[in-house]
Specification:
The chain has 100 residues and is α+β, with helices and mostly antiparallel strands. Helices cover 32% and strands 31% of the residues. A 4-stranded antiparallel beta sheet has the order 2-3-1-4. Strand 2 and strand 3 form a beta hairpin. It is globular and about 45 Å long.
Length: 100
Amino acid sequence: MEKLQFLYQLKLIPSLLDQSSRTDKENSIVQHHFEVLQNLQEEGKLLLAGRTLNMDPMGIVILEVDTEEEAVELMNNDPAVKEGIMEAQLFPYRVALYKK
């Protein structure tokens, strides 16, 4: 069965846009979020993750999984989403071109 691709968009909650206002707990959640994404990459489920570098950053995560339910579960279990410091929205997606 061909794998499906999904993109989830992440937006930091407005109260955390100023990095200096983040607590150690919030910084720890962001670190855990990154570690979970690294694990997904090692499992072959993460194609790409990154963020914009402007003052109101947006992150994207592109997954390659078996089902939409799996994508929803991975997004909802992202520590940043689960802990409520980032809001996420899932989109069906298909990478059309890759850099060689």
